[in-house]
Design a protein that fits this description.
Layout (H helix, E strand, L loop, with lengths): L1 H23 L3 E9 L3 E2 L3 E10 L5 E9 L4 E4 L4 E7 L8 E10 L6 E11 L5 E10 L4 E6 L3 E2 L5 E9 L5 E10 L4 E4 L4 E7 L4 E10 L6 E12 L5 E12 L5 E9 L2 E8 L5 E7 L6 E4 L3 E7 L4 E10 H10 L5 H11 L5 E9 L5 E9 L18 H9 L4 H34 L1
Parallel strand pairs: 2-9, 11-18
Antiparallel strand pairs: 1-3, 3-7, 4-6, 4-8, 5-7, 8-9, 10-12, 12-16, 13-15, 13-17, 14-16, 17-18, 19-20, 20-24, 21-23, 21-25, 22-24, 25-26
Length: 439
């Protein structure tokens, strides 16, 4: 009986001692108060608020809490390890502390719940690990990555294409794309500026085509296109992207060159800017060619030439074939010679090659080549110097008769006959006068 009583007393003493130890020992509890935002978006950041609470009867000193940076979470704006100091027993109002972490979520994180691990300890004791689930949603993001035209010519229909790519981690749906230009210089034709896309999967692209025209009277320069893209994510949230793209209006132009007139030693050409853009620093050059030769300067500087404007330039141009023939032979060519020269030099066609150099509105230097039919007027030339021009042979043929033997021999005979007749007449008169005197 005494043994039974002693056993009961001993048990009561042990139980009392255990309760006393438990009462005086700390007990830590970690809970997540909230995450912002909920759900967190892949590629963005999330803020977590944690509460560490001491539910035991003993104080905790040198309390440390650390977030384990496992995929897809990474601590930013601070240290992953924090020292929270002392937590008192649960009877006091200082038995808990709140702490905050800012985490970066990997851009490739998939939608769903991701486990975040933390650990804590005090007074250098062993680490204790806890874990929480963080809600993560895929990032929906579209990008207008390509506009295929950087330059538009005024007044000309041009196809412009915009490429939209889903570079996020979630499909996009009910997309609305539109664009505009503030001054109304660039406008779409055959359609409005809005297009709809029903669905665009992750990594897919879609090409949107427009036919546009820049105003023919537009001032050359860079114009801004305002681009807008609205879309819905799989959770029905709506997002809008607004950006800009630059398009240059201007560029090249064209010219028309026509024969104006030809006088002695001078041939005039009319040069007109027939394009829709102004031409800067215009110069006209007559290159070397087999049919024609330029005496003096073969180039002329015009300056700037607005669209629709024209000017006249003059050069000393001669026909190479006829001038060379006259210089070498010293005589007029026959009909056979003329035909041969026409066949060799194209005198019958008289196409003069002209090169126009100019700077376009983008600052690029360009060249335009034109073939201009020209006709020379009849003019006096010097065969020995090689300046005989087309059309001069008719005048040479007319004057060569008076210089030929066909003209001089009959003329000499006529002069002799007239002289002899006058001499005989004078002799008869003198003889008649002498007879009358003798009588």
């Amino acid at each position: 009986m005494k043994k039974i009583i002693l056993s009961v007393i001993l048990s009561l003493l042990i139980l009392s001692w255990v309760k006393a130890v438990q009462y005086e020992s700390p007990a830590l509890k970690v809970t997540m108060l909230n995450q912002d935002p909920t759900p967190a978006r892949a590629g963005d950041t999330v803020e977590l608020r944690l509460r560490v609470e001491n539910t035991g009867g003993g104080a905790v000193e040198n309390l440390e809490v650390e977030v384990l940076q496992n995929y897809p979470f990474r601590v930013i704006d601070g240290s992953a390890l924090q020292n929270l100091g002392t937590l008192y027993a649960y009877q006091t109002d200082k038995n808990y502390v709140n702490t905050q972490y800012k985490l970066k979520i990997d851009k490739d994180a998939v939608k769903g719940k991701h486990e975040l691990k933390i650990r804590y300890r005090y007074k250098g004791n062993e680490w204790v690990t806890s874990d929480f689930n963080i809600d993560v949603t895929s990032k929906e993001f579209a990008q207008i990555i390509y506009v295929d035209k950087a330059k538009l010519e005024p007044g000309k229909e041009t196809e412009m294409r915009f490429t939209i790519t889903n570079i996020g981690n979630a499909p996009l749906q009910n997309m609305v794309f539109s664009w505009s230009e503030a001054d109304g210089v660039i406008l779409p034709v055959y359609s409005d500026d809005t297009k709809y896309i029903k669905y665009l999967d992750v990594g897919d692209s879609i090409e949107l085509k427009y036919t546009v025209i820049a105003d023919v009277n537009a001032k050359p320069g860079l114009y801004a296109l305002d681009l807008s893209l609205k879309y819905e994510a799989t959770n029905a949230t709506s997002t809008a992207i607004k950006t800009k793209a630059g398009v240059f209006v201007g560029g090249e132009t064209d010219f028309d060159v026509a024969f104006s007139e030809s006088t002695q030693g001078q041939t005039s050409l009319s040069v007109a800017n027939t394009g829709n853009n102004p031409a800067l620093s215009v110069s006209v050059k007559i290159p070397e060619q087999s049919s024609f030769r330029v005496t003096g300067s073969n180039s002329a500087i015009i300056g700037n030439l607005d669209k629709g404007d024209y000017t006249i330039v003059s050069f000393q141009i001669v026909s190479s074939g006829m001038a060379n023939f006259s210089r070498q032979s010293g005589q007029r060519p026959s009909q056979q010679d003329l035909q041969r020269l026409r066949n060799q030099t194209g005198i019958g066609n008289n196409n003069l090659k002209v090169i126009i150099d100019y700077t376009d509105t983008t600052g690029e230097r360009r060249s335009v080549e034109k073939n201009v039919p020209i006709q020379f007027r009849a003019a006096t030339g010097d065969a020995s110097s090689g300046t005989l021009q087309a059309g001069q042979f008719q005048r040479t043929q007319q004057t060569s008769f008076w210089q030929s033997k066909t003209f001089y021999i009959p003329a000499i005979i006529i002069v002799l006959v007239v002289g002899f007749a006058l001499y005989r007449k004078k002799g008869l008169r003198e003889k008649t006068t002498r007879i009358f005197k003798e009588k």
